[in-house]
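Two entries, shown back to back:
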Amino acid sequence: MKRILALFFLLCALPASAAVKVLATVPEWGALAREIGGERVDVTVATTAMQDPHRIEARPSLIARARTAELIVATGADLEVGWLPLLLRESGNRRVQPGQPGYLEAASVVQLRDVPQSVDRSMGHVHAAGDPHFHLDPRNILPVATVLSERLTQIDPAGASAYRDNLARFTERWRAALTRWEEEGVDLKGVAFLQAHRSFGYLAYWLGLENRGELEPKPGIEPGSAHLSRIVATQKSVPAAVILRAAYQSETAGRWVSERTDIPFVTLPYTVGGTPQATDLFGLFDDTLARLKNAVQRP
C-alpha cells in the first residue's frame, strides 16, 4: 500500500505536458486554432468581433500574452499593421517574431485580391498588399488550416498525430459544409449590394454578388451627409438590393441610406462572435447566408 501511495504522489508531482500557447490576432484564426489544436492548445484572441481589427491598442495585457506565446497566428496583408508590430517588439519574445516558426501569417498561403497598382495617403486606408478580408471566402480556410497544422506539429512534435487527425476531421466537415453553402447561395448570384466599408469583396467573389460601392468616400473615412445624399440619388435609377455592414462597424450611415431608399440594411457577423449564431467558423457562414437570403427575399 505504501508503495502504491508513493507511486501516486510521484506521478502527481511530474509536470503535465503544457498546452501550446497560441495568440490569434482575430477571432477567425482563434476559432481555427481550436479546431486544429483541440485540447493541445491554449488559445487567446487579441480582438473581438465587435472591434475594428485595424485599430487595436497594444495594451499591456496583450503584450503579456505575446510574451508567453509559442505561436502567433495573424491575418497579415497589413490588417494588423497599426498594432501588431508594436506588440511583437514589446513582447521581447524571439519565438514569435516574423520569420520564426512561432509566427504565422494566414495571408501568405492564399491568393489576395484587389492588389492596388500604387498607394498613397490620399486614397485613404488602402492595403498595399491587397484586400486582407479573405477569410470571408470559405475556400481560403482550408489552406490556412493545413499550414496551421504543420506549424503546430513543428512546435509540438509530440502532438503530430492529434493535429493530423484534427485537420482531417475538420477538412471533411468543411468540404461538406462548403458544398451545402454553395447550393444555398445559388439564388444570391447577381444580387447587388452596397457596403459600409470594403469588407465583403471575397464574400462577393465567392457568391457572385455585385458590389455597387461603399458608403465611405474613401476606405477608413467616415461619410458625411453630402456624400450619403449622392449615394441615395444614385439608387433611384438602379438600386442595390441590400446594404451590408460588419458587426463592428457603425450603423449610422447604413441606416441613414436605408431609411431614404427602402433598401434593407443588414448586419453580417463578419467573423466568429459577430452575431449570437456565429459561434464558430461553421456558424459564421451559416448565419451570413441566412441573413443575406432573408434580406433579399424580404418583400
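entry 2 starts here
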Amino acid sequence: MKTFNNIHIIGLDNGYGNIKTANGIFPASVVCYDAEPAHAHDLLIYDGKYYVIGAGHREFTLDKVSNLDHYILTLAGIGQELWHNRMTTAAVHLAVGLPLTWVDNQREAFRAYLWQNRHVDFVWRGIDYHIDIVGVDVYAQGYSAVIPELKKFTGANMLCDIGNGTMIVMSINDRKPVPDQCYTEKYGTHQCVLRAREALTRLCGRTVPDVAIEQVMREGTADIDPEYVRVIRDAAAAYVAEIMRKLREHEYDPKTMRLWIVGGGGCLIRNFGQYDANRVTIISDIHASAKGYEYLAERRLKREAKAQ
C-alpha cells in the first residue's frame, strides 16, 4: 500500500486462482450464505450476507462484472491490506488490472463495478472496516509486473504472464509495448491441473487432491506415492512444452529475443521447462503486479497534483 495526500493506494491483482495485494494472497473463490457458517476463518460479512473466501474453485468467465464475486474479493483484499498496515478506516484509491486484450473494452465497466459504492462498511476476519473509495484505476495485466525491470528491456523482448485462468503474451521492444503483438489466451495453470487430473485417472485409476497436484507444480514433489508424482510431473512438462509452442506461434525466437515470465505459472517453467537461463528471466515475486499497479497509480496522482 502506498499513501499520497492521505489517500491509501491499494493494488489488487484480481486473478482467477488467487487475489494478490502488495502484502497478501488468498484463494479467489466465494461462497455466499444467508446465516453465519460454523468454523469459517476467512469470512467476509457485507450487506447482511456472509461470504466464505477460498472455498472451492471459481469458474473462469469472460468478464469480471457478471456477478458479485470480484467485488467481494476486492473488499477482502482491501481488508487484508489495511490489516497489514494496522488500519480499519481509510480513504482508498484502488489500482487493479485486466487481461491485456480486455482493457480497452472492459476498463470502464470494471471501474464502475468496483466503484459502485463510494462508502463501504464490511467485516473481514472478525474486524470491522469502514472505507471511502475515492478512485479506481484499471491497468493492463503483465506489463505492470515488470515496471521495476523495464530499463533492461532493450532490443526485442517477449513478456508472458501465466495466471490461473489466462496466459497473456506481449512483445516489448526497447521498453515500449507493441500494440498489435499482444494476446490473451485461456491457457492458465488451471489447465495444467486439469491435465494432471485426467492423466492420474487414465494411468493410475485414482484421483489426487488438487492441493497435492499444485504442490508438485510449485515444488516438483509432494508427500504422495512416487508414481503419482511422476504422472503429475509428466503432465506439467507437457503443459510447459505447450506454452513454449504457443509462444513460438506468437513469433517468439529465443535466439533473437529475451523472454520474461511473470505470474504464478513461472514456477512451472522453472521446474519443468527447457530454456536458456541466460535469456529467460522468471520473476518469482507473485505480488509484482499488485505493486506495479500501486506504482502506476501513485505516479498518475502525483502528476495530476503537480499540474494543478
